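ok trying again, last paste got cut off:
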Amino acid sequence: MNIILKHSWIILTLLGCFFVPKVNAQFSLSGELRPRTEYSHGQGMPAFEDQNSSLFTSQRTRLNFGYANDDNVKLGIVLQDVRTWGNQPQLVGNEDFATSIHQAWGEFAITDGFFIKAGRQELVYDDSRILGNVGWAQQARSHDVALFKYTDDFNLHIGIAHNENDERTNNYYGGPDAYKNLQFIWFNNNSDNLEYSILLLNNGIAGAVPANGSNQDVYYSQTIGGRIQSSIDNINIAGNLYYQTGKDAADRDLRAFEIALEANTELDGIKIAGRYELLSGTEPGETDNNSFTPLYGTNHKFNGFMDYFYVGNHINSVGLHNLQFTGTIPLGKSTLRGDLHYFASHKEFDDGNFLGVELDLGLTVPVNNAVTFSAGYSQMFPSDRLALLKGVTNKGSLHNWAYLMLSFTPEFL
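nice, full thing came through this time. structure:
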């Protein structure tokens, strides 16, 4: 057995030589190992006075398997292990930390241009504002969904998801995920220097499991909108507009919106960008819910890397104005990036709406084709109003966060 394991790569290579030409198939095998050390003192919320900082290392490990053949059949499997250094004993004797399935999907073509893709998969659309994979998070996000895709002069995707536990009697759903039912239609067209997308998404949140055996309530909200982008000379411009209606998880009437405008250009190799985004909010004491929720997007990407807004927080709150300026400077093969954010609430509270200013700095250094080093430093300058919003009564004077990360992405086959 040891001899077989030791020389398994030879066996795989020989099998590939015999079988790949016969079935005209392609097989890929790659990996990812991403340890990241983070220092935190006020990341996510203002630090208390005399609060100690934290230092930890998390790690994502992945094996990515891919298969495709001439019959337009594709399979993708991503095995993933996410851990914090020290959360598993050195002499592990259980399976509480077993590897999970991040993706496991199959796709085939019904006719030319029409495909069905089913299984656990990432959903990434447009700028990832509503549907994204949250790649920064070590665990990332994937969905159990059936996807119907049409690709020709335009792209049309229809997604259908229905989540259940092991309950097979009364159709109850008690989590753990954010929705019980999800359906969406995404239309995309790209021609003549103009690309636009339209998204219609119906999101069904399960209510509490009833104790008397009656039907479980499901509260549906609808997100309607899209994204448009074009270029004028060397200036790229884009915008988002989304509207939400229906019911929230507390059965309140929902009326909310998101609007974003952005532009970027390049001058002597330096990239300059500006972005403004408004996510509507609810004024304290209002009965209806006017707070926009970006649902399943990559929220870490948009409102500052210190994750004060819409990263497991700031939901059904006072909304957000975000004015952002970004500069990216090439340093040989490396890049240095800086972001400056001005934050204010959409709805005024405590006699105003200024929340704070955040500075984000990031450095990316490609070591070789399989290794990348990155580092970052962020500092938030929160107002007393932001501390009050976050429930911090004795705010400290320093609120910062930093990280060092190595990304190994080898391709084995």
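cool. The two ends are 24 Å apart (CA to CA). The helical segments are 2-6, 8-23, 384-390.
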